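[audit] Reproducing an earlier prediction to check determinism. Same input, same settings, fresh worker. If the tokens differ from the archived copy the diff job will pick it up downstream; this log only records the rerun itself.
[audit] input (577 residues):
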Amino acid sequence: MKDCKELREEIATLPVNQSVIVAAGPGSGKTKLLIKRLIYLCENSCKSNSNIACITYTNAAKNEILDRLKNEIGFSLPQGTFIGTIHSFLNEYLIAPYSYLLSEIGRPYELLPRGFSKYYVNRISDSRKFKIYDNLIALESIGYDRNGELRSFRSNRITKDEMALLKKTIHDDHKIDQQDTIYFAYQLLLNFPHLKVALTSRLSSILVDEYQDVTYYQDQIFQFLTKTSLFFVGDPNQSIFSFTGAEPTIFESRLSNPEAFEKYSLTNNFRSTMTIVDFNNKKSTLKQLANGSNSDIQQDVILLKEEIDIKQAIESFHQIRLKVGSEKEHIPFLILARKHEVLIDIQQKISEHEIEQSPFLNKLKEIDYRRYEIINQLLKAVLLNKSHEYVKSIEAVELALARIIFNKNPNFVSLSDIKYDRLLWRKLLVGIFAWLNAQELNGMAIESFLKALKEQMKNYSEKNLGVKIGVKLKILDYDWPSQKKESKKITAQQVMEQIILEPNEADNAYLSTIHSAKGREATSILVIAEDLKELQKWMNLNDKEDARVGFVAFTRARRLLCIWCPDLSESGASAFL
């Protein structure tokens, strides 16, 4: 059946004991389908004493699923339902209760946090036995090949002796890392058949997102669960995590096994314009059709050719994207690169104000820093909220409100001056946070924005908290010296979209490695390649991981895709389009 609403309904409502595998391209609504299947299984499971597990690739994906489930009217997760990463799943169901079976002293192993290797390298180096490779990230990728032999998936510079010594030192402490978690769980199921029977009886269904990124031993674990129905969804074109041991061929082999699974493909793209979809279809064997709200937008994929450096490329990108427009429910832009070093260079230029943000805010900053900071922080709060940076968003709201009422940093305010306590202050923050993120900023001039904020703060405090604070809000009455026309004309949305977050705010906001951006999207995307050679690899068919990295980067875009690398000529750009 062709991809349509009826097909997706069929997939979601297949019998609860039916195993399903779905190939789903970028922007195809696979998370929505996964959630719909999860809800159906929860509501129709015939085994009252068994659980359902939904396994995600990242904690961010877990949180997204939980957030979406909260909005499902009349639905609540059954007790015992698991939603989380593969490592937390294995730790809860196997490692924590049963790993003592693999221990010579009958004691369970404890999972180490990321960044553990530095401590152990220092211990080993002190012994002077080996010169351990100093790439700590590579050390934490040491896992096991299909023969159970140690292997670093990130580097071939680490010797087997060094790998063995590091693992022994960790295991002697009765600790394990993420790679061990998967391998030890596999060993438990392989060597203790009663655990395999118990686990498959306990779990009626397992759903796994991003199955193209599973490793050999993860896949073997799922094959042990013969009485558990499985729901796998993934996209071989987006497999870019070989440094974790991921093998895209595993998902492809599952797709070609019709006896074990009902097989489906989702080919609609609800994210991008037809131009962007066509651009990416050139690289993929899974062809998509643009069917979303952006599908009819006429906007070329742009290769920036005249810009000689990153600064010029970013400024050109911002000029173009402001003409393209924005979407209320989506973050305005992402700037992507493969290497952290490129992002650090961009962050440095932002910090030194080499890359200019909103001209309106820059002018206000010179005239009235207090009002600049108020507007800047409030609009940053909206941006951060759209990027699911809720804690940072609330912090920005608090900084703005402290400037409005006290003209102080939040750490130095005296709440008794307005007859507040910490609880009332927190309620005000949450109330203004909710109001702020519900506003239609695209139709609200900056002047009107401040007036509306004043009324909201005044009324909310008086009606909901029982305290009058109107006299403390005079800063929001502003005659806009030298910016009168601009304040009535420029909208809060336009100003917000010109804000580039500072480095300490941009961790998960607008600057991102391509790998970290997986699963994210933005109205406009700028992809930065290190050089022409890297760009050429990204533009090839997706049979190599470098090409799939490019595919992941390009498919994050909803309306605008810009690509830049040093020395990109007119003829070179034409060859890519």
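[audit] rerun output stored. Observation attached for the diff report: The CA atoms of residues 145 and 531 lie 33 Å apart.
[audit] end
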